[in-house]
Write a structure and sequence with these properties.
A 3-stranded antiparallel beta sheet has the order 2-1-3. By secondary structure, it is mainly alpha-helical. About 50% of the residues lie in helices and about 10% in strands. It has helices at about 20-40, 45-50, 55-60, 65-85, 105-115, 120-130, 180, 185-190, 200-209, and strands at about 135-140, 150-155, 165-170. The protein binds manganese (III) ion (MN3). Manganese (III) ion binds next to helix 1.
């Protein structure tokens, strides 16, 4: 049985960038619904139900056709949200290791090399996010050669490689921001950069190098 992971921070700790009510609904209602529907889809497939979610989503073509769409949507939703909760974190002035603040060493090196620095990265990432039509996600992933790439996916599709290549992701479904930002997606994207868990990204980069 898949389960919604608990958050390593409280619902109100991303204020004012993401409000408590949005975080609560997003985690308890939306993410839970993806997990519940995924578990229902996998009920008659005990072997598949054992697989880690990233493996299941990456191996979508091997999933029986009868449940492939369900796994794509609900399994993707489960994976993507699990990654998203790790991407963001509170800004604790007293405890920068908990997330927020500024990019760390390996991240700065990466941004300097491929995006002409943090501002260049933010600009490219925001452009991509604002270029997405409808609901979906914007990602910073590593391609097969280990180069960073900014990409969008529609709906709950996961990026190539599933969770294994993801450095950063942003949920661009309206349920992620509508209560506070309504139709102002650009403001939500700007707010996101205040709550990126840079330490998490740094840890991912160091693990790969
Ligand atoms: Mn969502």
């Amino acid at each position: 049985m898949h389960e919604v992971p608990s958050l390593p921070y409280k619902y109100n700790e991303l204020e004012p960038y993401i409000d408590e009510e949005t975080m609560r609904l997003h985690h308890i209602k939306h993410h839970q619904a993806y997990v519940d529907k995924l578990n229902v889809a996998l009920e008659d497939y005990p072997d598949l139900a054992q697989k880690p979610i990233a493996d299941l989503v990456v191996g979508l073509n091997e999933v029986p056709e009868a449940i492939r769409t369900a796994v794509r949507n609900y399994g993707g939703g489960h994976l993507n949200h699990s990654l998203f909760w790790e991407t963001i974190g509170p800004v604790y002035p007293a405890s920068p290791a908990a997330g927020g603040g500024q990019p760390r060493e390996a991240t700065i090196t990466l941004f300097d090399k491929y995006f002409l620095g943090l501002d260049g990265f933010r600009q490219k990432f925001k452009e991509s996010a604002l270029g997405l039509f409808g609901s979906g996600w914007t990602w910073l992933v590593l391609d097969s050669a280990g180069r960073p790439e900014i990409t969008n996916t529609p709906n709950q599709d996961s990026p190539p490689g599933g969770g294994k290549t993801v450095l950063l992701c942003l949920d661009l479904w309206e349920h992620a921001y509508y209560l506070k930002y309504q139709n102002r997606r650009p403001e939500y994207v700007d707010a996101f950069f205040h709550i990126v868990n840079w330490q998490h990204l740094e840890d991912l980069l160091r693990r790969r190098s």
